[in-house]
Amino acid sequence: MIKYDDIRHSDEINTYIRQADASLEALGYTEHSFAHVTRCAHTAAGLLRQLEYPARTCELAAIAGYMHDIGNVINRIDHAQSGAVMAFRILDKMGMEPAEVATVVTAIGNHDEGTAFPVNEVAAALILADKTDVRRTRVRSSADIGADIHDRVNYAVEEAHTELDREKKTFTLRLVLDTGICPILEYFEIFMERMLLCRRAANFFGLSFGVVINDQTIM
Question: Full-prediction pTM beyond 0.90?
Fold first, then answer.
């Protein structure tokens, strides 16, 4: 059985993650390296664990989270689909069972806005983990925040965490935003599509998705 630790310690996979992030840095994108993919892995698996999915399903979510951005090594455009094809080859070569490969590549192929849809529990968890990872440390240089709205919004986020309330059936992204750097409106100017995608992903679990910024409920 292929474990999350096997994936996390794979020289091949880690090489693709490093090169993918280098390409995105050249294109001016925020950090998509080990901090991002590890956070996605832990958040996706943790959500399913809290929702009492089987341990193996949680582990497959961690694997999908860790591998979800490797397609950027080919091109940013359609990276979800190219990443899914790459993951299929890697996991098949490692000996993962076909049903588990299918679960992981389905999640990877359905994680990016524009083509994403929460087609299964792992895909839904990955969407929520990926699209809620907004934080100052993803910005590569604070010198760019005046010119680049994505850098400015991420840099303005001083604190961010997600919160599942099973009793109220809610999944909430809570942010502390420095509005002197970025007004709340700018957050939604670039992230509205992602937040609507998170709503669909949360709905898969029978949850409502919410965003709270500076203790104000925004959606």
Answer: yes
